[in-house]
Amino acid sequence: MKVILVNGSSRNQGCTHTALEEVARALREEGIETEHFFIGNEPLSDCIACGRCREIGKCVLEDSVNLFVEKAKECDGFVFGSPVYYAHPSGRLLSFMDRAFYSGKSAFAHKPAAAVLSARRAGTTASFDVINKYFTISSMPIVSSTYWNHVYGNRPEEVLQDAEGLMTMYNIGKNMAWLLKCIELGKENGVLVPENQKVTTNFIR
Fold it and tell me: Which of the residues 9, 86, 176, 195 has the least number of beta carbons within 10 Å of its own beta carbon?
């Protein structure tokens, strides 16, 4: 089993990476393979609403999004991490997730996921809510912890002093490993994922 940890920060080895690595440490202890995926700090396009992904099966914009979706098809769980900017996740991560989840939704369905936030002081719970909405619209079980999934600090060394935050990250990893093993055991015993129905409506009469 494998979990991809997505770093939506502009800094590859910053506070967000520090939090994600603590989740990964717990996963590895449980025999779960992990991979860090850094989105990068180059400009990343937002979705241009062209609709071409419905025709060709991938985003028409060739960058890290399509690479990630291909990896997502082969993995079992996800952790998306972001710094907090003005009480929301990084714009880079939101553009990345908009395109990845729209063009490759089937790669995520019924796979556990968790959101992880890093902030100097505030805005984490609002950002946590934003990322979780990607999971709930995609039939993904959300992995919880023993507190809201965030750490505090302005630099990685400060995050390492946030004992409760690090414990929260570690417990995410343990809970995700437990859930992944339960899902695998279910598959081995003939428990299949549900076939969800789809009805799209609006309120124009």
Answer: 195
Rounded CA-CA distance 82/92 in Å is 9
Q: How far is the C-alpha of 20 from the C-alpha of 80, rounded, in Å?
A: 8
Instruction: In whole angstroms, give the CA distance from residue 202 to residue 186.
Output: 37
Closest to 130 measured CA to CA, from 8, 2, 22, 15:
8
Question: How far is it, in rounded angstroms, from Cα 113 to Cα 5?
Answer: 10
Q: What is the Cα–Cα distance from 82 to 131, expressed in whole angstroms?
A: 9
Tell me the C-alpha distance between 15 and 8, whole Å.
11
What string of H, E and C letters represents the secondary structure of the chain?
Answer: CEEEEEECCCCCCCHHHHHHHHHHHHHHHCCCEEEEEECCCCCCCCCCCCCCHHHHCCCCCCCHHHHHHHHHHCCCEEEEEEEEECCEECHHHHHHHHHHHHHCHHHCCCCCEEEEEEECCCCHHHHHHHHHHHHHCCCCCECCCCCCCEEECCCHHHHCCCHHHHHHHHHHHHHHHHHHHHHHHHHHCCCCCCCCCCCCCCCCC
Q: Which residue has the tokens 């202890």?
A: 29
